[in-house]
Amino acid sequence: MTAGLVLAAGESSRMGRDKALLFYRGRTFLETVIATLHEAGIHRVAVVLGHHAQAIQQAVNLAGVEVVTNCDYLCGQTSSLQAGLAALVGSPAEAETLDAIVLCLVDHPAFAPATVSALLDAFVRSQAPVIIPTYGGRRGHPVLIARSLFEPLRALRPNQGANTAIRAWRHQTELLEVADPGVLVDVDDPEAYRQLSQLD
């Protein structure tokens, strides 16, 4: 089984308001990412919240989603990734049933369900430990991460990014070219959001 993991715990300091609650195509960013995963056939989805967690839960429909609150979100994104993995992996028996995760960032809301499906198909074919979508040769999101990386990711120190673990597998990483410019859309500040709104 492959699960979805959505990181939405950050302070959104550059944006000035919670990115999870920004709107894209009639839904919040968080609802959009969750819906895209579901449409691609991923039924188990965990969302990691932190900053303004209660307000986001009240504003967003998270029915059927596993909500994880990261009280240490100020330590950075790695702490949220680790909190989400801990919730998804759970017991050793659960760990054995989870083959991979599709890791999504809430400020990358524009990728298509077909891209997620392509990542899943590529994983079935290659069993690569990491599969990264590319568009025009540029790497984007979301990223598929296989079970073999779960423990290395959970062992990272707070000041180490996920790329610290992923780089160790770079020779086995699959770069998957997709026909989806949305994988490159990173809405990190008001100007990027304005540009996204023009595409909506």
Structural descriptors:
single chain, 200 residues, alpha/beta, eight-stranded mixed β-sheet, two-stranded antiparallel sheet, 8 helices
Account of the protein in words:
The protein is of the alpha/beta class. Helix content is 36%, strand content 21%. It has eight helices and ten strands. The strands form two sheets. Strands 1, 4, 5, 6, 7, 8, 9 and 10 form an eight-stranded mixed β-sheet that branches. A two-stranded antiparallel ribbon has the order 2-3. Strand 7 and strand 8 form a beta hairpin. The longest helix has 14 residues. The protein is globular. 42% of the residues are buried.
Roughly what fraction of the amino acids lie in strands?
Answer: 15-25%
Which word captures the global form? globular
Helix and strand composition category: alpha/beta
Largest sheet: 8 strands, mixed
Secondary-structure element series: EEEHEHEHHEHEEEHHEH
| First-last Cα distance | 32 Å
Cα-atom radius of gyration: 16 Å
> How many beta-strand segments?
10
Low-confidence stretches: none
Give average pLDDT, whole number. 93
Task: Quickly count the helices.
Answer: 8
| Helix percentage | 25-40%
